[in-house]
Structure formats: C-alpha cells, structure tokens
Amino acid sequence: MNKVKSFILIMSLVFIASCDLERIPESNLNDRAFWNDNQNFEEACNRLYTFLDGYAIVVLHDVRTDFSYFGSPNAISSGSRLPSANSDDWTVPYRLVFTANKIIQQAEGKDKISKIKQWIGEARFFRAYAYFELVSKFGDVPLVLQPLDIDSEELYGGRTAREEVVQQIYSDL
Fold this sequence. Notes:
Layout: H1 2-17, H2 31-34, H3 38-49, H4 55-63, H5 91-107, H6 116-138, H7 162-172
C-alpha cells in the first residue's frame, strides 16, 4: 500500500509541476496575447473600416459645401447653420487615429509576420484619411502619432500647424 501512495504522490507532484501557471486568462485579452499573428492584425485592421460611414461619405460631406442646394435653401446653403452640441466630427477621426496608431506601434519588430507591411500600410492609410477629415473641417489640429495613455502630456497639447499635418498625411500615404 505504501508503494501505491508513494506513486500517487510522485505523479501528483509531476502533474502539478508540469502545469503552465503563466497562462493568459482567456477572458482577458491583452496586448501580449493579441498582437502575435496575421489573423489578429487583420482583425485589428478590420476595425478601421468600421469608422467609414458609407453613404454619408458620398452624400453628407458635400452637403457641407456651398454647392449643396436641393431646390430650396437649407441651413448650410443659407449660411444659418449652427454647430451641433453633439457632433462627432472631432471624436470619431481621433478614435480612428488611436486605432491606427495602436496597430502601427504593435507592428514594430514583428517582421516574422508575413503580411505585417500590409497591416501597417492599411493603418497608415486610415490615419491619413482621419487627418484629412480633421484638417478639412478644422484646419490646425493636434497631431498624435502614437497611442496615448490617460496621463500623457500630449492629451493637453495644442494644435499642430495645418501644413505639418498635411505633410504627415503625405508621409503616411
């Protein structure tokens, strides 16, 4: 009976010692677990496409010009439009910039991933697109080229000159 207890004790110790205690919880997805392969970068880049507003890109952006006159004056064509208190013209492009910056940052040093240049290219295109939208509407805007934390000084920085932002757009493209 002693041999059986000893065997069970030894086998228990072997199984406990062989457990991978450094596993990442499947319910918590963090950077270390996510940015490892083409599929994850592709999923991250797919998020960039959710910022495109489809029909509104073609139709509504032209409504902001003085060419938009649909048979009768509207608030834009008559010059009486007031800015909305809940417009997302500022926040949505910066969410896109943050997502693109995160992809670009996480792609650094990941040369072993076969399509990494494609994912970086998509992220840079969308960052350029977001800054184009911002510059078109606001002129000088803050230029942010890396993901920011809640305590980052850049969150409280001023606007960057329009010309510098446009140069960054060209550089990204």
